[in-house]
């Protein structure tokens, strides 16, 4: 069955560019070969390439959201909308001093989605970064970053907002299922790192040591929970992309590592590593109420995988020097 996602992205990106006025279109569009702008990841509230959603009229703003929705499952899109809304909550908690707002999210398109074989786009702001690269109608879906500050808002001891709760709860189920031996291998440090290790680097580390506990050492329940945790992150993507990524990882080894306190409500971190896979989660600032999560492909981020295939195909198609073109 043909994958509908590339064409959905192409159509949505074209509709967005058509909805922008000329000044906004100039800010949104970048050359595909502008590597610093295209290979950009920044989940802090900073200026960034693109045009801010706040500057768009309603039709253009909706077009930007429709483009974002082509890259996310309904559940992940709901998480992204909650993340954006938390900017208003955080601004209130900070006494309105920094002027945070839910329109401070930027969209950028690299190349021409209507004509180019290689093009890309990104939707990004504080605690949200979604980058998609398309080459020869193959989508490379990473990095995908979601964060939340505050991670949990409570009333009378009950959560009223907790957009990244599943990412924490499922990892804790896995930790509890490991048993003493598995937990000893999985817990790599008593203190959690200050942030995700891959941070905002354009290239994620190919391997983070220590690896933690391998899936092959886990019992049936532990293996099932680790698989569910990976699936939770892959299911941020549309079903077609999630299934392709799951097939790519099938049969490969996975490692799970945890750092920091194991009790809820304290600073903690975990990661999952596999073949061209890095999942990181941290909740290590604001007394464990400020979460970051990211799905990365160290060898395939920002389309490195599909671009390598594109260049290889172009090289094979090029005539040999001295031969007549065919």
Shape, please?
Answer: globular
* Biggest sheet details: 13 strands, mixed
* SSE order: HHEHEHHEEEEEEEHHEEHHEEEEH
User: What is the typical, i.e. mean, pLDDT?
Assistant: 95
Distance between the termini: 32 Å
Low-confidence stretches: none
- Secondary structure: helix percent: 25-40%
β-strand percent reads: 15-25%
Structural class by SSE content: alpha+beta
Query: What's the tally of helices?
Result: 10
Give a quick set of tags describing it:
alpha+beta, globular, two-stranded antiparallel ribbon, 22% strand, 37% helix, 13-stranded mixed β-sheet, 326 residues
Report on the structure:
With 326 residues, the protein is α+β, with helices and mostly antiparallel strands. The protein has ten helices and 15 strands. A hairpin with a 2-residue loop joins β5 (128-135) and β6 (138-140). The radius of gyration is 21 Å and the shape is globular.
Give me a quick take on this structure:
The chain is of the alpha+beta class. 37% of the residues lie in helices and 22% in strands.
Give the topology, please.
Blueprint: H1 5-19, H2 22-28, E1 29-30, H3 35-38, E2 51-52, H4 58-69, H5 74-93, E3 105-110, E4 118-125, E5 128-135, E6 138-140, E7 144-148, E8 153-155, E9 158-161, H6 165-177, H7 179-186, E10 187-189, E11 213-214, H8 220-234, H9 239-249, E12 255-260, E13 268-274, E14 277-283, E15 291-296, H10 304-317
Parallel strand pairs: 1-3, 10-12
Antiparallel strand pairs: 2-3, 3-4, 4-5, 5-6, 5-7, 7-15, 8-9, 11-12, 12-13, 13-14, 14-15
Helix pairs in contact: 1-4, 6-8
């Amino acid at each position: 069955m043909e994958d509908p996602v590339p064409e959905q992205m192409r159509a949505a990106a074209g509709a967005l560019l058509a909805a922008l006025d000329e000044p906004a279109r100039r800010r949104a569009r970048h050359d595909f070969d502008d590597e610093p702008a295209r290979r950009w990841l920044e989940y802090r509230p900073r200026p960034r390439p693109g045009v801010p959603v706040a500057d768009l009229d309603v039709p253009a703003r909706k077009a930007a959201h429709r483009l974002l929705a082509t890259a996310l499952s309904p559940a992940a899109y709901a998480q992204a909308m909650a993340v954006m809304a938390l900017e208003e909550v955080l601004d209130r908690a900070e006494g309105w001093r920094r002027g945070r707002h839910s329109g401070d999210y930027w969209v950028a398109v690299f190349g021409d989605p209507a004509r180019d074989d290689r093009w890309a786009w990104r939707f990004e702001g504080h605690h949200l970064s979604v980058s998609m690269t398309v080459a020869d109608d193959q989508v490379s879906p990473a990095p995908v970053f979601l964060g939340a500050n505050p991670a949990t808002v409570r009333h009378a001891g009950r959560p009223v907002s907790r957009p990244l709760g599943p990412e924490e709860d499922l990892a804790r189920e896995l930790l509890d299922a490991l048993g003493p031996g598995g937990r000893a291998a999985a817990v790599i440090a008593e203190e959690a790192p200050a942030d995700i290790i891959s941070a905002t680097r354009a290239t994620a580390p190919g391997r983070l040591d220590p690896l933690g506990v391998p899936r092959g050492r886990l019992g049936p329940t532990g293996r099932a929970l680790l698989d569910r945790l990976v699936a939770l992150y892959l299911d941020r993507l549309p079903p077609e992309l999630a299934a392709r990524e799951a097939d790519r990882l099938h049969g490969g080894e996975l490692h799970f590592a945890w750092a920091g306190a194991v009790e809820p409500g304290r600073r903690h971190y975990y990661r999952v590593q596999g073949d061209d896979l890095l999942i990181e989660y941290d909740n290590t600032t604001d007394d464990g109420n400020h979460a970051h999560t990211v799905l990365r492909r160290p060898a395939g981020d920002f389309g490195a995988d599909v671009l390598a295939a594109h260049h290889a195909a172009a090289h094979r198609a090029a005539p040999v020097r001295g031969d007549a073109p065919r």
